[in-house]
Specification:
This protein is mainly α and 181 residues long. 67% of the residues lie in helices and 3% in strands.
């Protein structure tokens, strides 16, 4: 069975589509339909800014993962000798976050940045980004490693808060503004 939303570009397996809205039914082993909770979940997600929420969540997970080396290296957390394994695991989680963020970034870029001005706008933001990279590289030479990881974790937390502020914007308004440009 397939559950789909008419006009959407994606298909979710597991139930059957029946109308122009999400209409999902899962049949249990005793023959009862219990898919209305899935219907309400999909309709609420499809009407919200799911990509903004996903990006905020990815930033929060990245911030938490970068706080692990900060806490281990600073000695704030009493370690039992497993600090190396925890730091490696936190780096793997951060790499996962980077990989998960790439498709979300493309979705957000196509949603908020007008197609005709994408090259110009993205080039304008490269200068501040490079300044942050240079400052971070400079910081690793002149600050304690734990402090640098605290700063990285704080920057990711700030990014999560700023990304969360984008959830307030409605998709219809953004789409209408993008079509006008």
């Amino acid at each position: 069975h397939i559950c789909f939303h008419v006009g959407a570009n994606f298909v979710v397996t597991g139930a059957r589509g029946r109308s122009s809205n999400w209409m999902c039914f899962l049949v249990t082993h005793d023959g009862h339909h219990n898919g209305w909770h899935i219907y309400s979940l999909f309709t609420s997600v499809s009407k919200t800014n799911a990509s903004e929420m996903t990006a905020s969540f990815i930033y929060l997970v990245g911030s938490a993962s970068m706080s692990v080396p900060a806490l281990c290296l600073s000695g704030i957390v009493i370690t039992d000798g497993n600090c190396f394994e925890r730091i490696v695991a936190s780096f793997l989680v951060m790499e996962l976050c980077v990989g998960l963020f790439s498709p979300v970034q493309g979705t957000l870029r196509s949603k908020y940045v007008p197609d005709a001005q994408q090259g110009v706008i993205l080039n304008i933001f490269r200068l501040p980004l490079n300044a942050i990279v240079v400052a971070g590289t400079y910081a690793t030479d002149h600050m304690e490693r734990s402090t640098v990881f605290f700063l990285v974790s704080g920057c990711l937390l700030l990014a999560a808060l700023l990304q969360s502020s984008m959830i307030v914007s409605t998709p219809q308004t953004v789409s209408a503004n993008k079509k006008d440009n």
